[in-house]
Amino acid sequence: MSPEAADLFSVASAVLPVLACLVEWAGSVGISERHHSHHDTYVISSALSRSLAFAMVLMGSIGLMLGWLCDVGGFDASADVVMPFFSSFVIVLSVLWAFIRRYRASLYDDFMDVRPYVGCLRTVRYDQIERMEWVGVRCGTGFRTLVIHPSGERPVKLPGVLDLEHILARIDRDDALAGGRPQRR
What we know:
This protein has helices spanning about 5-25, 45-70, 80-100, 165-170; strands at about 35, 40-45, 105, 110-115, 120-125, 130-135, 145-150, 155-160. By secondary structure, it is of the alpha+beta class. A 5-stranded antiparallel β-sheet has the order 1-2-3-4-5, covered by helices on one side. The chain has a 3-stranded antiparallel β-sheet with strand order 6-7-8, with no helix packed on it. The chain starts with a helix and ends in a 14-residue tail after the last helix. The mean pLDDT is about 85.
């Protein structure tokens, strides 16, 4: 591997975790549910995004240390193999972290705005919901992902890590919920 590529991997292993930690430290409010006078906003838990930032720091540090030890002869391995492995892990995790931090669902009286992991902001009027269904496996909250099907539009997904009990109470469309409201474990 060229020295420039090795430097690029080292920079990725060092800069991306530091950037994630700075954003978490400066920009995170620490709560995943915010109640305002005219709407409620739900985001992915800051504990999850902080855990991903910590994993980036840990793996980036291990990668830099092992790469250095390989360069000075501490291990009989090539830094050309070690650094790309750890750097690619950090890069993939930083993309996942960015997507998770982006997600937001804001619920108003008659509609909700959902900013998905990828894509543009979606607005769903509660009276235009044809059906809602549970998909996937149960998350740590005890809920699966809720898929909302508005009439004539693409479905909107609300991940099970959000406070879906409050969201369903705000939507108040139990008639559209296939299979009823699930019980927590």
